């Protein structure tokens, strides 16, 4: 896999995904989108077995750029070695009143994308969990635990990033009441 080509692909795919999530999910200014990503899967390997740190930097940068363009905050799900903790900017963690935990993601203990995001962010922090407005899952990382209920799957233009499966979801408000309830 050529890194220059992957840089272009990641930028195009993630920009399109963020735009589709914004439109379909009516994401608010300042909303949060979580990315779970296996660089092993993107490169055609098996999740957790062939981490590619160079891809981590490319993908993290593309996600941060796409989110900034749309007025959103990017968050990055770590792997199970850090209990799927979330990398995000310190000010976002504080604004959302999230529980901070202490660790610094590494390519083989947290994942290549979160480790790269940690290096690219101004003041990175690690949260135990989050209830984000939307999520992108690249490589079957099971990012759904970090989406606010009710999660709505979104089928977009792209089904893959590199060799990895790509799925998305946004959240909607839960409906409560019953047959007498009225909704906007």
Structural description of this entry:
The protein has 184 residues and is an alpha+beta fold. 32% of the residues lie in helices and 21% in strands. Strands 1, 2, 3, 4, 5, 6, 7 and 8 form an eight-stranded mixed β-sheet that branches. The longest helix has 23 residues, at 3-25.
Question: What's the helix and strand layout?
Answer:
Blueprint: H1 3-25, E1 32-37, H2 39-42, H3 53-69, E2 73-77, E3 86-89, H4 90-95, H5 112-120, E4 124-127, E5 134-138, E6 151-154, E7 160-161, E8 164-171
Parallel strand pairs: 1-2, 1-5
Antiparallel strand pairs: 2-3, 3-4, 5-8, 6-8, 7-8
Radius of gyration: 16 Å
Helical element count?
5
Ranges where pLDDT stays below 50 over 5 or more residues in a row are: none
Question: How many strands appear in the DSSP assignment?
Answer: 8
What's the order of the H and E elements? Answer: HEHHEEHHEEEEE
Mean pLDDT: 94
**N→C terminal distance:** 48 Å
Beta-strand fraction estimate: 15-25%
- Quaternary state of the chains: single chain
Instruction: Tell me roughly what share of residues is in helical segments.
Output: 25-40%
Helix/strand-derived class? alpha+beta
What is the molecular shape?
A: globular
Give the biggest beta sheet. Answer: 8 strands, mixed
């Amino acid at each position: 896999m050529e890194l220059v080509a992957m840089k272009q692909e990641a930028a195009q795919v993630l920009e399109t995904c963020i735009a589709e999530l914004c439109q379909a999910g009516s994401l608010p200014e300042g909303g949060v989108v979580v990315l779970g990503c296996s660089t092993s899967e993107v490169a055609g390997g098996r999740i957790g077995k062939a981490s590619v740190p160079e891809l981590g930097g490319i993908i993290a940068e593309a996600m941060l750029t796409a989110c900034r363009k749309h007025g959103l905050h990017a968050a990055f799900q770590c792997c199970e070695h850090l209990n799927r903790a979330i990398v995000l900017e310190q000010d976002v963690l504080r604004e959302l009143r999230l529980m901070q935990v202490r660790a610094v993601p590494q390519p083989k203990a947290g994942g290549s994308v979160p480790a790269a995001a940690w290096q690219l962010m101004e003041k990175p922090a690690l949260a135990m969990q989050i209830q984000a407005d939307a999520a992108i899952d690249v490589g079957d990382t099971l990012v759904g635990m970090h989406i606010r209920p009710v999660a709505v799957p979104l089928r977009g233009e792209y089904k893959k990033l590199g060799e990895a499966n790509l799925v998305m979801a946004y959240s909607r408000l839960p409906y409560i009441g019953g047959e007498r309830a009225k909704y906007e």
